[in-house]
Amino acid sequence: MEITKIQPGMTGVNIKGKVLEIGKIRDVKTRYGETQVANAIIEDSTGQLKLTLWGDQIEKVSEGDVVEVVNGYAREWQGEIQVSVGKQGELKISNE
Known about the structure:
Strand order of the largest sheet: 1-3-4-6-5
CATH class: Mainly Beta
Number of domains: 1
Shape: globular
Largest sheet: 5 strands, mixed, barrel
Strand content: over 45%
Helix content: under 10%
CATH superfamily: Nucleic acid-binding proteins
Structural class: mainly beta
Radius of gyration: 12 Å
């Protein structure tokens, strides 16, 4: 799926893109307990979007990596579309 075709509310999102930047890591409290979160900007040939990285995903991803989100979901947060892997999804990382 192309990044520009992602819409808020979509599930089963499968995208692949290069990590351009990883934002500041923040400590957050969720209904599942305390964890860390960071937003990464990923890009494919059609555009860019934010990928939300949770917990140990943050340490696995570096700028320049190619990441693939399998069975993720999209939502809108503060006016921007963001994709998350979620509990049912998978994050694959390569150094292509």
